[in-house]
Amino acid sequence: MAAALLAAGAGAQPATRRVVHREAPRSEPVVVELFTAQGCAGCPEANARVEAVADEPGVIALTYAVDYWDYLGWQDTFARPEFAQRQRAYRRSLRLRAVSTPQVVIDGRRQVVGVGGAALQSAIDEEAARRIFPPEIEFRDTGDQVGVGSGPAPDGGAEVVAVTYTPGPQTVEIEGGDNRGRSVRHTNVVRSVRTLGDWTGQPRLYALPATREPHQAVAILVQRKVDRRILNGAVLPPR
């Protein structure tokens, strides 16, 4: 099976349009989700750790800014309430006592405590070695649809999630709170999260978000509903 980070396989129908393919080392990328906040004193180091692995082949790194530290004196410029909601969903599925920042979740299956360089890389390598033969993902060259192929439907079902983000680093000058006076750098900052629909194990086409800006990319995640484990992911780069 040809490996593709941008587009994988040809399981979805119809296939009458040309599909964009890009070769990559793995057909099952490791999804690294960082929950961070500009007002969190310990977060800049975690941001840097995630940025260091973001360009590794076979890694999809996404940075979600949460808003629950805004009361400390700085309103996070990237935060949205739905990002904290996504983190709380992981708290339930991972059976954690509370949410906190920084937190890194790998493939929706595990969190990395402390986000040390060795711990993060080890978790990525372990997930990369685990093969689950997931449903394949492919984008139409029109850029408005994505297909998800067939596969075993998990108990409780799965959903297809579109995560729109700005690729690459961004730096924000912090003027208040615990990080006052610091330049805080982020990578692959998430702008929106949207559920495109359910996936039941049968091939299906989904409409991509129409409001994406030209400089934004979209990560498509096929994610189990009950335990939030990510079955597969793929990235549509900026237009």
Written overview of the protein:
The chain has 239 residues and is an alpha+beta fold. Helices cover 16% and strands 33% of the residues. A 4-stranded mixed beta sheet has the order 2-1-3-4, with helices on both faces. It has a 4-stranded antiparallel beta sheet with strand order 8-7-10-11, covered by helices on one side. Helix 1 (43-54) links the parallel strand 1 and strand 2. It is globular, with a radius of gyration of 17 Å. Residues 1-26 have low confidence and may be disordered.
Short description:
It is built from three helices and eleven strands; from the N terminus they run E-H-E-H-E-E-H-E-E-E-E-E-E-E. With 239 residues, it is an alpha+beta fold.
Main-sheet strand order equals 2-1-3-4
- Global Rg: 17 Å
Distance, first to last CA: 27 Å
Secondary-structure element order, as H and E? EHEHEEHEEEEEEE
The main β sheet shows up as: 4 strands, mixed
- The averaged pLDDT comes out at 88
Number of strands: 11
Relative helix content: 10-25%
Unreliably modeled segments: 1-26
The coarse overall form would be globular
- β-strand percent reads 25-35%
Structural class: alpha+beta
What is the number of helices? 3
